[in-house]
Design goal:
Layout lengths: L6 H20 L10 E6 L1 H4 L3 H12 L6 E6 L5 H12 L6 E5 L12 H20 L3 E5 L16 H22 L3 E2 L1 H16 L15 H14 L5 E8 L5 E3 L3 E7 L2 E6 L25 H5 L1 E7 L5 E6 L2 E6 H6 L1 E2 H4 L6 H24 L4 H7 L4 H28 L3 E8 L6
Parallel strand pairs: 1-2, 1-3, 3-4, 4-5, 6-10
Antiparallel strand pairs: 6-7, 8-9, 9-14, 10-13, 11-12, 11-14
Helix pairs in contact: 1-7, 3-8, 3-12, 4-5, 5-6, 7-8, 12-14, 13-14
Length: about 425
């Protein structure tokens, strides 16, 4: 597929490619195994600690059985050669089994694509992949994101031109992933598609790639997290609850326990959460508004209620403080509660885990950028003094221990959630 097509044609090419890529992603082989460590590497967009936070949140509350540890290694202004140079030292304390990369935004130099830009990026990304592959790690090769079609402002370099450049770098990242047998996260096309659809529905002022045109808000970062979670092969089956209106018996899949049930009501205790969302349905400052334009719930967040033997054509379902009416056939086939009920009974618990993840990732930025990455150059400056290196490694160990404490706080924040689902006749005229 070529990205060197003009204007509107390019958007059609991207959209068609995305449909094909998402179909492949549906059948992606799961990358993560229980107990693995996942490193999230990238530039300032990664250092925003939003998509990295959403990835960690998802793995912590939606896939708790995997017990994955996540650490983020974002660095503002970084290009792929920068990470290629620091990765061995900076990753050494974590020893990841899987690494996601997100480079290209700065590598494109905010100008028209040239072969020199492409070669510099490709060579550096190949170095990253080769080094990580030698350690036995799997690399989820991510392409760059996109720039906002309304808010990106660069002299003699409109958004369409720079997105063309980023799209070409994304193709190079895909080729590298394919040639090494690694997953590819198509961040660019996923963001372009979501941005095109969202602006068509909500207007051009709705930013998906940030008000500065480059750094997304929570909405755009959820799109990025979606691309990586799909590339990691996550399947999205959070749980299924089935209730019989005939005998009141209920069943639930792993991660959810039926406490009591009767015809029309089931009380549950869940240790596996659906992913929860923030904000309203129009603000880029939350994650909720982007949901109609990215299949996050359909692909990754299915917490399903099935009701059998319903005596009415329609029924009112109450979950938490919210109720909605569904048809008999919808309830028989299964309703995705995570998509239909925003907010829901998991929001408070989810928010507490989110705060714990954010605190841990904030420390990771400090320990890597302010300390660990400086150790080799400091030791060299001081004539490779062994005592200096030993002292600095002791402090590194203190940071790692502090991070372990925050990692425990993340795990401790995931507590069982008690909640009830009620099925009743619909209101008159409802």
């Amino acid at each position: 597929m070529t990205r060197k097509t003009a204007g509107g044609i390019r958007w059609l090419v991207v959209a068609a490619a995305l449909v094909s890529q998402l179909a492949v992603a549906q059948n992606a082989t799961p990358v993560l195994k229980p107990g693995m460590k996942l490193a999230v590497a990238g530039d300032s967009i990664t250092e925003q600690k939003l998509y990295s936070k959403y990835i960690e949140l998802y793995l912590t509350v939606c896939e708790p059985r995997l017990k994955i540890q996540v650490a983020q290694f974002g660095w503002g202004g970084e290009r792929a050669p920068g990470f290629a140079g620091r990765m061995e030292n900076d990753l050494s304390w974590f020893k990841p089994d899987v690494v996601t990369t997100c480079y290209g935004m700065n590598d494109g130099s905010y100008t028209t694509y040239t072969n020199t830009i492409g070669k510099t990026y490709s060579d550096a990304m190949a170095t990253i992949v080769t080094k990580l592959k030698a350690t036995g790690a799997t690399v989820v090769v991510g392409g760059p994101g996109a720039v906002d079609t309304k808010f990106y402002a660069h002299a003699n370099n409109p958004a369409a031109v720079y997105n063309e450049n980023l799209g070409t770098l994304s193709d190079l990242a895909r080729d590298l992933a394919t040639s090494n047998g690694f997953p590819f996260a198509d961040v660019h096309s996923t963001m372009v598609k979501a941005m095109t659809d969202a602006k068509a529905a909500l207007g051009p002022e709705y930013d998906v790639c940030g008000r500065d045109g480059v750094h997304p808000g929570p909405n755009g970062h959820l799109v990025m997290a979606y691309a990586y979670l799909k590339a990691l092969g996550l399947k999205g089956d959070i749980g299924t609850v089935t209730l019989s209106m005939k005998d009141g018996k209920a069943t639930a899949t792993d991660g959810h326990k039926v406490v009591t049930s009767q015809a029309g009501k089931v009380n549950l205790e869940s240790t596996r959460y659906p992913f929860c969302f923030s904000g309203d349905d129009k603000s880029s400052g939350g994650t909720r508004s982007i949901l109609p334009f990215v299949p996050f719930n359909a692909d990754l967040n299915r917490f399903v209620l099935k009701v059998t033997d319903l005596p009415w054509d329609r029924a009112k379902v109450t979950w938490g403080a919210t109720n909605k009416v569904f048809s008999k056939s919808e309830l028989e086939q299964g309703v995705n509660l995570a998509a239909e009920f925003i907010p829901n009974p998991f929001n408070d618990a989810f928010t507490k885990v989110e705060a714990a993840v954010a605190a841990k990732q904030a420390l990771e930025t400090q320990m890597v950028k302010d300390w660990i990455t400086r150790i080799p150059s400091t030791v060299r400056t001081l004539d490779n003094d062994k005592d200096v290196e030993s002292s600095m490694r002791i402090i590194e160990g203190k940071f790692v221990a502090k991070r372990a404490t925050l990692q425990q706080a993340v795990s401790a924040a995931v507590i069982p959630v008690r909640h009830a689902i009620t099925i009743e006749p619909p209101p008159a005229g409802g």
